[in-house]
Specification:
By secondary structure, the chain is of the alpha+beta class. Helix 11 packs antiparallel against helix 12 and helix 17 runs antiparallel to helix 18. The longest helix has 38 residues. It is elongated, with a radius of gyration of 39 Å.
C-alpha cells in the first residue's frame, strides 16, 4: 500500500463500486467509531476503492473494532445466509460469533504483519439463523496506515463447500465400490495397460493365485511368469484391443501357488474397462476354481470306461467261466452304484456352482445396498424439505430394502448348506440350543415366552448348521402365537430304533438308532394337509401382514437335517399349536 500515496476525496474513492459503493455512500457513519469518510485515513480509502472495483470476493476489517467493508462479489455469500446488508460497518466479532474462535487468531497474526493463506478450511456459518459447516479458501493480508503500521486486514476468499462435499461424496462412492470389490465372493483382479499391470486384486483372487498384495503395481509377466507360455496374456490384450468379453468355461492351468506347483481347472471371464472418454484402459478378470467338479466328472468317465471294459470282458468269458458270473455281476452292480453316486455328486456340485455363479455375477447385494444407503441419505439430508408423503415413501423404500436384504441373506444361507461329513464332530445339542436362546434373548423377553427344555444328547454334526435348525424352529414358535397369549415352547427328546421310526421318513443314513428331538408350541398351528409344503422354499401358509418372514426358514431346517442323514416332519391342527419332530442318527 506504500506505493499508493495520493490523497483521495470522499467523492473520488466512493465513486461507482456497484451496490456496495452506494450503500457505503448512504451509510450513517456519524454513529460509527470510524466517523464520516472525510475522517478516514487515505490507506483505508484506497483499499475500499480497490475492493469496490474488484470482481473477486473481498472484504476489509479495519481498526481496533475490526469494522467491516465488502464488495458486490462478497455480498452474494452474505445474501445466501440473509446477512446482507446488515454486516456493513459492523464489528467483526458481532457479525461472526459462530466462527470467531477460528478466525480471530488468524486476524491477530495478520495485525502483526503476517500474510496468511488457507485452502478448504472448515468454518461454521450462520445462514438464516442456522449454523452449518462451510469450507473456504482465502487469503488474509495486512493493510498498513500512513505510519506503516498494520491497521486492517484485507480478505480475498471463495466458498468451496460444494466442491468439498462433492469430493467427499465421490470418495464415499469410491470407497463403497472398493469394499464391494474386496468382499466379492468371486476372485477378481484388474489389469491396466498393454503390460497388464495389476492395479486392484481381492483376497479371493490372491488365494486362488497363491500370491500376496505385493503383486499390486507389477506386470502380469512379473506376477505369473509360469503362465507366459500359455495364451492367457494374448487373450487379455485381445480384450483390451477389441473391447469384446472373453469367456472360458473350463481350462486346465498349471500355477505356482504359494511356491508349490498346482494343477487346477478354472472358469474365468475377461471384460474391458473404459475411462471417462470411452477409451479401453484395462481388463477386469473374474475367476472360479472348478477343480473338484472336473475331477468328479473325470472319475465318472473313468468308471464308465471301466464299466465298458468289464462288459466286454464278461462277453468273452461268459461261456467258459459261468461259475464266476455271479461274482462279476456283483462287481458290476457295485460299479453301477458307485457310478450313480458319483453322478449324483456331480449334479449336486454343478447345481450349486450354477446358483453361486448366478448370484455372484449379478451382484445382488450391490444395487440393494445403494438403494438403502441413498434412501437413508435422502431421509437425513432432505427431512426438512420433503413433505409427509415423501418421507413415507422413503420409509417404505427402506423397509422394502430391509425385507429384500433378509430374503437374500436367507437364500444365501440356504444355498451354502452343504454336507461335509469329514468335518462333522461330536457336539452337544444342549450347548447349541443354549447359544440359540442367547441369540433370541430379546424376542423371548419381549414375548414373555415360557420355554421348557429336556436334557438334550450329543451327536456328530455341524454346530453352525444345527444352530440354524433350532433357531428357525424356536423363532417360528415365538412368531406364530395366538394374539394376546405368551408363547409356550417345549423341547423333548427320545431315542428310537430304526424299526420304530414313522414309515413316511426318507432317510439317507443307515444308522440303527435315531434321536427324535421334538419342538412343540401352542400357537396358531396349521392344517396338516400342508405339512409337506411348509418345507418348500417360499411356501407360506399365513399372510405376510400377520406374520413376517421370507418363507425360507423351514427349507433351511429340512436341508440341515438331510445333510446330517436325518429327516423332519410336522404335526399340527389349526389353533392347536404345532410340533416338529427332528430325527438325527445316533
Amino acid at each position: 500500500m506504500e506505493n499508493i500515496t495520493k490523497e483521495l476525496s470522499p467523492e473520488a474513492f466512493l465513486q461507482g463500486g456497484g451496490e456496495m459503493g452506494e450503500l457505503i455512500r448512504n451509510y450513517n457513519w456519524n454513529e460509527n467509531p470510524l466517523q464520516t469518510p472525510a475522517h478516514w485515513p487515505s490507506s483505508l480509502k484506497t483499499i475500499i476503492q480497490l475492493i469496490l472495483h474488484s470482481k473477486v470476493p473481498m472484504f476489509v476489517w479495519w481498526g481496533e473494532d475490526l469494522i467491516q467493508f465488502y464488495n458486490d462479489a462478497y455480498r452474494d455469500f452474505l445474501a445466501v445466509g440473509g446477512r446482507h446488508p446488515s454486516f456493513l460497518g459492523k464489528s467483526g466479532y458481532d457479525c461472526w460469533p459462530e466462527s470467531w474462535s477460528i478466525i480471530k487468531p488468524l486476524i491477530d497474526r495478520v495485525m502483526e504483519g503476517e500474510g496468511i493463506y488457507m485452502e478448504n478450511l472448515l468454518v461454521p456459518h450462520y445462514r438464516y439463523g442456522k449454523a452449518i459447516e462451510t469450507y473456504w479458501t482465502f487469503g488474509y493480508s495486512p493493510v498498513y496506515n500512513e505510519e506503516n503500521q498494520p491497521k486492517g486486514v484485507l480478505v480475498t476468499c471463495t466458498e468451496t463447500t460444494h466442491t468439498i462435499l462433492s469430493q467427499q461424496q465421490l470418495e464415499l462412492s469410491e470407497a463403497f465400490s472398493q469394499q464391494l470389490f474386496d468382499r466379492s465372493p468371486v476372485a477378481k483382479v484388474v489389469f491396466m495397460g498393454e503390460d497388464m499391470v495389476v492395479q486392484m486384486v481381492n483376497e479371493r483372487m490372491l488365494t486362488l493365485l497363491g500370491r500376496d498384495r505385493s503383486i499390486i503395481g507389477k506386470t502380469f509377466m512379473e506376477v505369473m511368469p509360469e503362465l507366459m507360455i500359455t495364451p492367457i496374456m494374448g487373450r487379455l490384450r485381445q480384450v483390451l484391443a477389441t473391447g469384446e468379453t472373453y469367456v472360458q468355461p473350463e481350462e486346465k492351468i498349471e500355477l505356482v501357488r504359494f511356491g508349490k506347483p498346482h494343477i487346477g481347472y478354472y472358469h474365468y471371464i475377461y471384460s474391458v474397462l473404459k475411462n471417462e472418454l470411452g477409451e479401453n484402459t484395462g481388463v477386469i478378470a473374474t475367476a472360479i476354481e472348478i477343480t473338484d467338479q472336473v475331477r468328479i466328472r473325470q472319475q465318472i468317465e473313468e468308471r464308465e470306461a471301466q464299466y465298458r471294459d468289464l462288459s466286454e470282458h464278461l462277453e468273452q468269458v461268459v461261456q467258459a467261466r459261468t461259475q464266476d458270473l455271479e461274482v462279476s455281476n456283483e462287481e458290476l452292480l457295485a460299479s453301477n452304484e458307485e457310478l450313480h453316486q458319483l453322478n449324483g455328486q456331480l449334479n449336486l456340485a454343478n447345481d450349486r456352482l450354477q446358483q453361486f455363479a448366478y448370484v455372484a455375477s449379478h451382484d445382488l447385494q450391490e444395487p440393494l445396498r445403494k438403494i438403502q444407503t441413498f434412501s437413508s441419505l435422502l431421509s437425513q439430508k432432505y427431512a426438512g424439505i420433503l413433505d409427509e408423503a415423501g418421507l413415507a415413501s422413503l420409509a417404505r423404500m427402506s423397509k422394502a430394502g430391509e425385507q429384500m436384504s433378509s430374503l437374500i441373506t436367507d437364500l444365501l444361507s440356504y444355498s451354502r448348506l452343504v454336507t461335509i461329513s469329514d468335518e462333522f464332530k461330536v457336539i452337544s445339542l444342549q450347548k447349541v440350543v443354549a447359544k440359540v436362546l442367547e441369540t433370541l434373548e430379546l424376542s423371548i423377553e419381549q414375548s414373555q415366552a415360557q420355554i421348557t427344555i429336556e436334557p438334550l444328547p450329543s451327536l456328530k454334526g455341524d454346530a453352525m448348521q444345527l444352530g440354524q435348525l433350532f433357531q428357525n424352529l424356536i423363532s417360528n414358535a415365538l412368531k406364530f402365537t395366538k394374539p394376546g397369549e405368551a408363547p409356550a415352547i417345549t423341547i423333548q427328546t427320545c431315542l428310537l430304533n430304526r424299526h420304530e421310526l414313522p414309515e413316511q421318513l426318507k432317510l439317507i443314513s443307515k444308522a440303527d438308532r435315531y434321536h427324535c428331538i421334538s419342538v412343540k408350541d401352542e400357537g396358531v398351528g396349521f392344517d396338516e394337509k400342508y405339512a409337506d409344503r411348509i418345507f418348500v422354499v417360499f411356501e407360506r401358509l399365513h399372510n405376510k401382514q400377520d406374520f413376517s418372514g421370507t418363507g425360507i426358514g423351514l427349507a433351511i431346517c429340512q436341508r440341515v437335517v438331510e445333510n446330517h442323514g436325518g429327516a423332519i416332519i410336522a404335526k399340527s391342527k389349526p389353533a392347536q399349536g404345532a410340533v416338529f419332530h427332528v430325527y438325527l442318527p445316533s
